[in-house]
Amino acid sequence: MLTANLIRTKRDGGVLSEAQWRFLIEGFCSGEVADYQMSAMAMAVFFKGLTRTETADLTRCMVDSGERLPRVTDRPRVDKHSTGGLGDKVSLILAPLLACCGVDVPMISGRGLGRTGGTLDKLEAIPGYQTKITTDQSSRVLREVGCFIVGATETIAPADRRLYGLRDVTGTVESIGLITASILSKKLAASLDALVMDVKVGSAGFMPNLESASELAESLKEVGAEAGLPTIPVLTDMDQPLGRAIGNAIEVNESLDVLAGGGPKEVRDLTLRLSAEVLVETRMATDIANAEATLADALDSGGAKERFEKMVHEQGGTLSGHLPLGEQKDYVAYQDGWVQSIDCPAIGDAIITMGGGRRTVADVVDPCVGIDLHVRIGDRVERGQPLWTVYESQTKCPPIDPVVLSETEVSPRPLILE
Ligand code: URA
Fold first, then answer.
1. Domain of life here (predicted)?
2. Other Cβ atoms within 10 Å of 9 Cβ, number
3. Is 62 in the pocket of ligand 1 (CB under 6 A)?
4. Is the terminal CB of the chain with fewer CB neighbours within 10 Å at N or C?
């Protein structure tokens, strides 16, 4: 088999067999298929798509590129994954929160992808936090804490780890087949009993409208079911960032607030709902309302925050309150009005420009840069009122005007769409 022929087949709209995907993924992991060839293949897939069978085959080959994590307790194993969006820090809160409710959360997460931030980059803003630990270490943390958050490694979903890095910088993220295989390969490697998928819809995520997001949700549900993993998709709004904080250290700080029972309501509400779905799926709660009440208690009692601190400690991190941020600059409203929209691409690009995201695979992320949005779509604002704050470090924030105001009233947007 020749890699160039496989790329040509896909480029011309053909369908590859499982054996051909296996050849490609095995070669990619061993170094026989070069990064530039895999990037070309990702671009061909971006344009021509994958059939459902190809998506399932690719997912299986990516899982088989590494090991599966062993089950180390009798507790149900659950997880949540998001298709990615600005300000999405739910994973940091959800893992320790669910661990407080008697389930294990062995979370294998990703780095920033395109304009969206990554859970691993956020956690690495905490001094000492190790996202790369051995399987034995992660099993010990799971037994003792009930959750861990790590990255794909050379042994766990290595194909995703490498392909993810290439897609981030080659404009090949927004593909239903590649997103499905990327997410499910990590989740299947974690030997889960149930997965809730937060499928983001809107300009701050990868699926711009309900139609494409529903297609991705179907793909995740079907490929997950075929691989024996019950996958519950929830479609949620991403036409504005989730919560106020966008950036790495700043999102850890907001997560700490939510873990302590405070923080923005939309971050708390979404975390409760997604967590409730897996508690019901694994029969740890009878219904969503019941599950949400139990979860809310774990936030308000401080139990979830304590669990987060324990996880951070066990993974080598040192946390003593909020993390330091860059130099602060505030921007105010130049007129009265209502918030009509938020320019999410401008915010995402500004964070990357300031060093909070990557332009190339080798870039090192600066955790201190970030943006704090003080308003949400539909909010009434008055001239002179603070709209957003930027935290800059080495590189200044490019000129942006991320909050668009209207002179007429605007309705708030619903958070959970389907
Ligand atoms: N999250 C992932 O893990 N992979 C993707 O491709 C997109 C979002």
1. Bacteria
2. 16
3. no
4. N
